[in-house]
Amino acid sequence: MKKKTLAVLLTAAMTLPMCMAAIPAAAEEDGEPYKAALLLNGTLGDKSFYDSANAGLTALQEELGEDKFQFKVEQMGATSADEAKWEPTMYDYCDDGSYDVIICGTFQMLDALTNAANDYPDQKFIYFDEAFDYSAGGEENVYNVMYKQNEASYLVGAAAAMMTTDESLDMIDPSNKIIGFLGGMENSIIKDFLVGYIQGAKDIDPEIQVAIAYVGNFYDSASGKDMALAQYQNGADVGFNVAGSAGLGQIEAAVDSGRYAFGVDSDQAALLPDYAANIPTSALKNVGNSLIRAIKLDMEGELPYGTLEYLGFAEGGVELVMDEHYEEILPENIRTTIADLQEQITNGDIVVPTAVGENAMSNDEIEELISSVQVQ
Where is the protein found, in the record's own terms (predicted)? Predict the structure, then answer.
């Protein structure tokens, strides 16, 4: 079966307050609670990606009540030593047979999910943040959701480019135009963040330079800190971490260096109040909200299994935190420009380049974009 792509117009319904709607009819009629298992190839406490997924399921349980919805989180670990247990754990939950849906995400779980989906055709799965290959099966029991992270990172890049020469900001050296990017691993999702970040920065200032580093994993915060410290020491005064728990190292480096670091996936300024002065805002990938929506649709029997959906600004799948903290740190002229850019992206006047999906840039195009901002 050919993979299908569907952009669902969710608009504001993807935000957590709007997700607190009426209990789905299926949940009201069924005496047994709907049960979900969230399998994390990592651990909670990353203040980022996995915590967002867990927060969404927690919010849904609080809304519906445990008599209607229950979930379990399995923290499988993220190190190379943990990888061997990811697929067996997936099979253990399939063998259990008591879960209405098993949820997992990231490219690292693709093989385990593909095998399980074929071996357990009656088990339903939700897969997030990586494209599922429906040509290998899973047309009837795998729902796939991805996020237009390039749109959110475009705004971060634009903000960073404006900040790096703004003399009104205390932790800026306006004498150069260098900003930083710290990725976890060099895969298509992280590259999607990167190309959006670079393009947003270049559209503000074609002379911008971007220092780029990859940790090689999503858990080693010490290495992430060392890499970010090197970027700050070499002239970057604004950074963007897209590295899960490893990215927390960049935030620590920003504090130690007296620089700025944008957060990712969760509102890291709110989650890390001691570091908030160095975090202007965070680019959110609304994993938790997308899981709330998917499970509610599944309770109604309306979740489109066999379908890949991409959620961006227009669908509420990504956002930039624009709260009082954001207003306190960033000057009004920067905030006004960012709001205008977001509106243009949402209404289609700006089409942000991407590294994923049918319109993905080629590897050569991505490398050309990266080379255009290479630090001299």
Answer: Cell membrane
